[in-house]
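lol ok so funny story. i was supposed to be doing the assay writeup but got distracted and ended up predicting the structure for this chain instead. priorities right. anyway since i did it might as well share w the group, maybe its usefull for someone
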Amino acid sequence: MTTGTLDGTRTGTVDATKELAAFLRTRRERLDPTDAGLPGRRRSRRTPGLRREEVAELAGISVDYVVRLEQARGLRPSADVVEALARALRLAPDERAYLYGLARQRPRTAEGPATAAEPSLDRLVADLSPLPAMLMNRRYDILARNREMAGLLPDLDALPPSRRNAMWLCLVHPGMREFYVDRERVVRAGVAHLRAAWAAHPEDAALSGLIAECIAHDDEFARLWDGGDVKADGRGLKEMRHPDAGVIAVHFETLRPVHDPEQLLVVHRPADDESRAALERLSAR
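and the output, tada:
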């Protein structure tokens, strides 16, 4: 059974070098010189888009390097070169991400994480009721939660926005120290996520500060951080000792919005009838 046609050959795998070459050619040929700030050309010219020389000039690389990339001659451009080509070719965000993927590089960004939920995601979190749901950024800052989630996490509304962080609540907030029945597993998953986020964004001072605070306040976090674990749980079972409703068991699922995969939408479902009844009582309050 065939799975697709790439570069005229039916194959079950993608040749990233050839796809990179084809992608650069098509993006170069579609770009009008005036869009790139270059003088227009006579209509008699048959070659569409930009010349390779013009792409090289805009990207600050050699013409020979552009030629070899477009001829699929086995080059693996650095992240700096990929970013320069993305700017020169006026790539849209999705195209830029695709180019980075073909080059097996990680996009570099100085942008901080979202600090507030977009209205559409805020409405989605609310519409997930009666299932407890919340939206977090890469630091585990809670950007949005519905009524059921606010009831499930005690004291959340009483905290200032700067302290509405799921990791800080679990490790530092006095009322949450014994909240999770299997606390080590919860902390281990949080450590793995924060370590991956920290490695991808070493410039994020707030994230580094959160990690330093957690290491200083919690020996378990410090021990797990030193272990170097990067395998996070995106789904599973959690048991919580709620001060008013007793032990509540929930299945959780973590989803990522396509437009910002660093955000985390976490949805909880009751694991048994007793937990469902407890969540209904909390929601009614």
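The two ends are 57 Å apart (CA to CA). Residues 1-12 have pLDDT under 50 and may be disordered.
back to the writeup now i swear
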